[in-house]
C-alpha cells in the first residue's frame, strides 16, 4: 500500500465497541505511517503485566465500565508526546467522554495538530453477534471470528499456536453495557467534534469485510 504524505493530522476513530475501530486503525497505520494508539490495548497490556495502573482498572474493565478520565488523559498525553507522534497519530477508543474530548482538544492545540474524525456507524445487533464470535490471541494479538474468519484449527492461533481467548468483556450482557456507556457518554462527544473538526466523515461499517470498511475510511483521508 503506497504511503501518502499526510502530515500533522490526528485521526480520531469514533464508533461503538466492536464496530471495527481496531481493524480500521491498523489499516490506517499501514496507509499513512503514523502510529495507531488504542487506549483499550494499552490498558489491557497493563492489566496483563500486573502494573499498578492495571490493578486499578482491572475490575472496572471486566464490568464494562469506563476508566476515570484523569487516568486515561495522562496515559494519552504521555503517549502522544513521544517522538513517533510528531507527524500525527490515530486514536482508537479515546476520547470517550466530553471531559476527555476537551482535554484532547487542548493537547492537539498544544502540539499543532488538527483533528480528522472518522465516525463508524454499525447497527447494535450486528455488534453483539460480531463480538460474541470474536476470539483473540493473548500472545500476538491476532483477532479471529468463529463465523467469518475462523482459525485453521479450532481455538488455536494460526500465527503462533497459542490458545485463543474470548475477551472477558465480550459476553452479551457486558457488550450491551458497553454500548449503553457509548450512547450516554461518547455520543455527545461525537457531536462536540462534529462542531469542532472541519474534517468529519461518517463511514458505514455495516456491510463488507473489515478491510473494505477500513478502505472506505482511508479513502476520506487520501482525498484530503
Ligand atoms: P476497547 O478495547 O476500546 O473497547 O476498551 C476496552 C475497555 O478499556 C473499555 O470498556 C474501558 O473499560 C477501557 N477504556 C479504553 N479506553 C478508554 C477511555 N478512553 N476511557 C475510559 N475507559 C477506557
Which CATH architecture of the domain at 9-123 and 186-222 would you pick?
3-Layer(aba) Sandwich
Separation of termini? Answer: 17 Å
Oligomer: single chain
Instruction: Indicate the CATH class of the domain at 9-123 and 186-222.
Output: Alpha Beta
Helix and strand content put the structural class at alpha/beta
Descriptive notes:
With 224 residues, this protein is of the alpha/beta class. It has a domain at 9-123 and 186-222: 3-Layer(aba) Sandwich (Rossmann fold), CATH 3.40.50.300. It is built from eight helices and seven strands, in the order βαβαααβαβαββαβα. It has helices at residues 21-32, 39-49, 52-62, 69-80, 98-111, 124-132, 172-196, 210-222, and strands spanning 9-14, 36-38, 88-92, 114-121, 134-136, 143-145, 199-204. α1 (21-32) packs across α8 (210-222), α4 runs parallel beside α5 (98-111) and α6 packs across α7 (172-196).
In short:
With 224 residues, this protein is α/β, with parallel strands linked by helices. It has helices at 21-32, 39-49, 52-62, 69-80, 98-111, 124-132, 172-196, 210-222, and strands spanning 9-14, 36-38, 88-92, 114-121, 134-136, 143-145, 199-204.
Topology:
Elements: E1 9-14, H1 21-32, E2 36-38, H2 39-49, H3 52-62, H4 69-80, E3 88-92, H5 98-111, E4 114-121, H6 124-132, E5 134-136, E6 143-145, H7 172-196, E7 199-204, H8 210-222
The structure holds adenosine monophosphate (AMP).
Adenosine monophosphate (AMP) binds next to α2 and α3.
Features:
single chain; 224 residues; alpha/beta; Rossmann fold; five-stranded parallel sheet; two-stranded antiparallel sheet; 8 helices; 48% helix; globular; binds adenosine monophosphate
Amino acid at each position: 500500500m503506497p504511503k501518502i504524505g499526510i502530515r500533522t493530522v490526528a485521526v480520531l476513530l469514533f464508533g461503538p465497541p466492536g464496530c471495527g475501530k481496531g481493524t480500521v486503525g491498523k489499516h490506517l497505520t499501514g496507509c499513512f505511517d503514523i502510529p495507531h494508539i488504542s487506549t483499550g490495548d494499552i490498558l489491557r497490556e497493563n492489566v496483563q503485566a500486573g502494573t499498578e495502573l492495571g490493578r486499578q482498572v482491572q475490575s472496572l474493565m471486566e464490568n464494562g465500565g469506563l476508566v476515570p478520565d484523569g487516568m486515561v488523559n495522562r496515559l494519552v498525553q504521555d503517549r502522544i508526546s513521544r517522538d513517533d507522534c510528531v507527524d500525527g497519530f490515530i486514536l482508537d477508543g479515546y476520547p470517550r467522554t466530553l471531559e476527555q474530548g476537551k482535554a484532547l482538544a487542548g493537547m492537539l492545540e498544544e502540539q499543532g495538530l488538527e483533528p480528522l474524525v472518522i465516525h463508524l456507524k454499525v447497527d447494535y445487533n450486528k455488534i453483539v453477534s460480531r463480538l460474541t464470535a470474536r476470539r483473540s490471541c493473548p500472545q500476538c494479538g491476532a483477532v479471529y471470528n468463529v463465523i467469518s474468519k475462523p482459525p485453521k484449527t479450532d481455538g488455536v492461533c494460526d500465527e503462533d499456536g497459542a490458545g485463543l481467548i474470548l475477551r472477558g468483556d465480550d459476553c452479551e450482557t457486558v457488550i450491551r453495557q458497553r454500548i449503553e456507556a457509548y450512547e450516554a457518554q461518547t455520543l455527545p462527544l461525537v457531536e462536540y467534534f462534529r462542531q469542532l473538526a472541519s474534517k468529519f466523515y461518517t463511514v458505514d461499517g455495516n456491510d463488507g469485510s473489515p478491510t473494505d470498511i477500513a478502505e472506505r475510511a482511508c479513502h476520506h483521508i487520501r482525498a484530503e
